[in-house]
Design brief:
mainly alpha; elongated
Amino acid sequence: MKVYLLSLGAGILVGVIYALLQVRSPAPPVIALLGLLGMLVGEQVVPLARRALSDEPLTLGWFHQECTPKITGVMPSRKDDA
């Protein structure tokens, strides 16, 4: 939760600085969010390619366990850590 609040605070601070300098943000919010989503999805191409090149199976279960939490930002539950 602390990381989310720090991120929000940093965003607000940058917004205030932009307003004081009377400049607009570099991208409309929807475009910026889509760009961030693209970055998160793109980061998963490397582990996917490594797994494919090492002849390990690419299963939906592996994708959901390894990639989906990194894309959605959902932390694994304690039972998954065991």
